[in-house]
Structures are given as C-alpha cells and as structure tokens.
Amino acid sequence: MATVNAFHISSLKLWFWSLDHDPPHFHAKKSGEWEVKVLFLLDRTEMVEVKWAKKQPSASLLKQLCNLAEKHRIALLAEWESLRGA
Question: Among 16, 40, 66, 83, which is disulfide-ready with 44 (CB 3.0 to 4.6 Å)?
C-alpha cells in the first residue's frame, strides 16, 4: 500500500495498492464510514465507485475529492505508473 502524494484531504486516508489492476485508480476511506475507489482518468460522473459504506459519503466531500483528482491527474498517473513499474 502506498499513500497518495499528489494531494491530501485531512479527514480521509488516500492510497494505491501496489501492482493493482487497471484502470488507474486510488482508494479513499473515511474511517469506519465508507471506502470508495476513485478512477481518476474518467469523467467526474463516473469517477467514484463506492466499495462499502455504513454511512454514505457526503456530496460535498465527494465533490472535493473529484475536483482534486481532476486537478492532479498527471501526478496521480505518474504515481500509479511508478508503483506498477511502468
């Protein structure tokens, strides 16, 4: 597991799994509440996939997450490729 370095959100844990499957993505988790997969190369309407949730992620937090993922796509892709040995 590798922490996302391109950006952070203080209330979330953001990480990549080493040698994870395509398409490029990272995981975001609000401890004890939910986990999502963020497919950062997709359009924001398709970018977030909920993995599990006891409580649904707030729309404002998901918007912030998508905004930052879009803003930092190049850095996120570089991190993804680095972990995969590309």
Answer: 66
d(CA 78, CA 64): 21
Q: Which residues fall within 8 angstroms of residue 22, CB to CB, at 6 or more apart?
A: none
Alpha-carbon torsion (78, 50, 46, 60), positive or negative: negative
Question: Distance (Å, rounded) from C-alpha 35 to C-alpha 63?
Answer: 15
Q: What is this structure's pTM?
A: 0.94
